[in-house]
Design a protein that fits this description.
Elements (H helix, E strand, L loop, with lengths): L7 E6 L2 E7 L2 E7 L8 E4 L11 E10 L2 E6 L12 E6 L7 E4 L7 E4 L11 E8 L3 E5 L5 E5 L5 E6 L13 E4 L19 E9 L2 E6 L2 E6 L4 E3 L11 E4 L5 E7 L10 E4 L6 E3 L3 E3 L2 H4 L3 H4 L22 E4 L10 E7 L7 E5 L4 E5 L4 E5 L12 E4 L11 E3 L2 E2 L5 E4 L5 E4 L4 E5 L1 H4 L2
Length: 438
Amino acid sequence: MAKLTNVKTLNMENGEITKVEYNGNVYDKVGTDSPEIGDIGMIIDAWGSLSNGDFYEVKDIVRYPIGNYPNLGGSAHGCVEDKDTMFFRKVTAQPSGLKKVDAPVVGGNVVFGVDYCDVTAGEIYEIIRVKDSDGFTIIDDVGDDNTFLVRYAKVTFYVKTSEDPYGEISVGDKVKVVVTDGEESEHGWGRVNNGDIGVVTDADFLGSIRVDFPNQKNWCAEESELIKVADNGDLLPGTVVKGNISDKVITLGERDFDRDRSFGTAYLVKDNAPFWIGEEQFEILTKEEAKKHADVAEGVEEDDEAEELIPADEIPVGATVKVVQQGNGHYGDTLRVTKNDRSGLFPYYTEKLDGGFADVYDKEHLEIVEVPAQEEKIEVGDLVKVIQSPAALPEGSYFIVRDISHDGDIWSDSKSGGRYIYAPRHVELIAKADEVYA
């Protein structure tokens, strides 16, 4: 039997080969049993003229009561016992818009590997009935209801999928738990933690969703507690996050592999490349919080009909105000606005003029006394000084502004080539560009 040459190892896990390439095709490890004709076998317990690590193609399978003997190479003397061989199976292209799952699902799809009982290999059929997770029924090529058993049919099952992280959740989807920090999950945490990633096993279990996690199977969740992620766990484009540095709400784009460095997995900022942000620089918003923003609800970056995120008549942070809410303990006092969380209910945080927290108020409870003077706008090319340092450059550092994002964040380039982001409040204008280069 002829040994295969030019078999390339593509991936290893714990010292074992899990993926190889041969003749331009990719093969995934399927184990040491249930080989199929066309698989590639790697010898792991050699005997005779065989050597461990050699690859052969499975040409035939001789089945005996004591085990299966795949014929590697087509020779009558080329049979080996399956337990002596690690098998790899060719990966077929996944149909567009579908996700592979392990079992048949009503409304899902099935693809047959061979022509068989009025079905055509490679064609996509919709599953109309499922029985005991083993039997499934489709409409075959001649229009008849045709039932198959999983254990006898060479098939691959799929369900419809969506690249929208906030789209409808289906069986087989990879999901991430996203709950507001400090809050309890609707059905309790068990052995699952906020941020864990699992696979959906039931998309409608008494109105909830069941998910298998590495530490707990069949965990119940509400759909509002989950967002969809890529098969490898990466966040999908369109995921909405809030920057830890600037408090800006950002919609993520594609993953930026070239930027995966000190800030963890990096993602481009949607519609604002080449700006990027690392996973350690943001927190993921819950589905409810994310859907408040127009770019998620309408699928566009700007929507004239969407609710404004920053109304023009808001009281600016830093303004001094007089409390006009009768009955309030600070009625008639003059305070300073320190924060606007835009929660819709008492969003304005205030402090006393000599320091110390005062109270929270709605806009109708306050009367503006004085608005802080408008500082000169920082622009590209200006020289600035770092006065707060949530990023890499220490306080007191100076840099030339290289970029300013559409939402006002200021970007600098470090000597090492990294690009860092600062909110305007983190820097102080030292000199305008025309003064720097005068």
